[in-house]
Design brief:
The chain has 154 residues and is α/β, with parallel strands linked by helices. Helix content is 27%, strand content 26%. The chain has one domain: P-loop containing nucleotide triphosphate hydrolases (Rossmann fold). Strands 1-7-6-2-5-4-3 form a seven-stranded mixed sheet. α1 packs across α2. It is globular.
Length: 154
């Protein structure tokens, strides 16, 4: 199942993400695709609002940390694999514990991870033009993802 939305600003992208996150009630794994500057971290900022991450937390790209964790209605684990040397590094950050948790995992650059390490429920693709316009595609994989999208609208 796939649905698409179009955004004309960073704020609109954040609102779409916030709305999606507000509908989530349990464990979920999201693969987040997009070129550099496509708005992946902007999307996660809005998503964090929808999970009620407290205002004192500033959502940034975990490019050098690989993972940032935020408290909220559900824990949010934001991963950025852009600088990942190998999938073996994921073992050192406790990925098994994160995957087993009841939180939401969002992985930027999931294509740099060995296939099957995380079973993603939803893939989100951000494509931008030379301005601020974005096409945001939501692609469900598995029952959780399909159920989420079936009930989602902006």
């Amino acid at each position: 199942m796939e649905i698409k939305f179009y955004s004309k600003s960073a704020v609109q992208t954040q609102k779409i993400a916030e709305k999606l996150a507000s509908t989530i009630n349990g464990k979920l794994a999201i693969a987040l695709y997009g070129d550099l500057g496509a708005g992946k971290t902007t999307f996660v900022q809005g998503f964090a609002n929808g999970l009620d991450v407290p205002e004192g937390y500033y959502i940034t790209s975990p490019t050098y940390n690989i993972i940032n964790e935020y408290p909220g209605r559900l824990p949010l684990y934001h991963m950025d694999l852009y600088r990942l040397g190998s999938s073996d590094e994921l073992e050192y950050i406790g990925l098994d514990d994160i995957v087993a948790s009841e939180g939401v995992i969002i992985v930027e650059w999931p294509e740099l991870m060995e296939h099957g390490i995380i079973q993603f429920d939803l893939s989100i693709k951000l494509v931008t033009d030379n301005l601020y316009n974005r096409e945001i595609s939501f692609i469900a994989s598995g029952l959780e993802g399909v159920n989420l999208l079936r009930n989602f609208s902006v």
